[in-house]
Amino acid sequence: MKYRRLGRTGLEVSVIGIGTWQFGGEWGQQFTQDEADAILDRAAELGINLIDTAECYGDHLSESLIGDYLSRRKRGDWIVATKFGHHFHERFTRTDDFSPNDVVKQLDASLQALRTDYIDLYQFHSGPDAVFDNDELWTVLDKQVQAGKIKHLGTSIGSNSNVHQVDASTKVGSSVIQVVYNRLDQAPEDGVFPSCIRQDLGVLARVPLASGYLSGKYKPDAVFDATDVRHRHDRESTVRKLEEVQRIAAEEVPASVDMAAWALAWCLKHDAVTAVIPGCKSPEQVSSNASVVALIETAHPQDVKK
Known about the structure:
Layout: E1 3-5, E2 12-14, E3 18-19, H1 33-45, E4 50-52, H2 61-70, E5 79-84, E6 86-90, E7 93-96, H3 100-114, E8 119-125, H4 129-132, H5 135-146, E9 150-156, H6 163-167, H7 169-172, E10 174-180, H8 192-199, E11 202-206, H9 235-251, H10 259-268, E12 275-277, H11 283-290, E13 303-304
Helix pairs in contact: 1-2, 1-11, 2-3, 3-5
């Protein structure tokens, strides 16, 4: 495994993390604790140390599966990132609440679900600029940092081109940006990434496999059932993306190279990107994702030698 410094947090994170939206049940599968354990155990075996989750992946359900696992493992071996700003009600239904008092309640609920005394990275979760610009919110969060409940603050931007929130990171004390970035969506390269480099912000690339489309498993006629979040994607857009994936597979991916690993390596070659956080439904997918390390041929400015 390779590790990189997560911006000015100083944390050394594996270049592959574990995204856990799927643990909340919105990707067509309900996970048992044993299944979650097997995924996280395989990640640990491969040197992965970064878990990304959120308060609204289920009603703290993803966090609870992770917390149960962590309660039986060494907490210090893991860097746990979660988020705030939403309440889960039922599948695909959430309400927003970024009010300072409620955010503290969300934090305490996340700590309880994760069975931990602290969160390594607590992220503003895809909220609008109007609530991001609330100084009271960041003052309250800073108090939680001082209290030891949070080690570092971050921002998961909802729009791939939200330079406003990225540019304000130093001011509000946010040290990490999470953003959608993949071979099909390169928008962050224009404004977000240059700002991250200027401020020495860590960057977590979410949806690096474009919701699984870049896994190479799906043809343009693929149909997703109603239990899968991809069922909600615009059909014409999905077909266009999968047609483009076929072209990329034929013209850009070397023969005998796993397309998913290639797509992850593609993200990691950008100087701004610290780590990718693909979701995974099985230990086998974790192994496949981790094989990206063999495709990273050149040294990266953030690489940490161990």
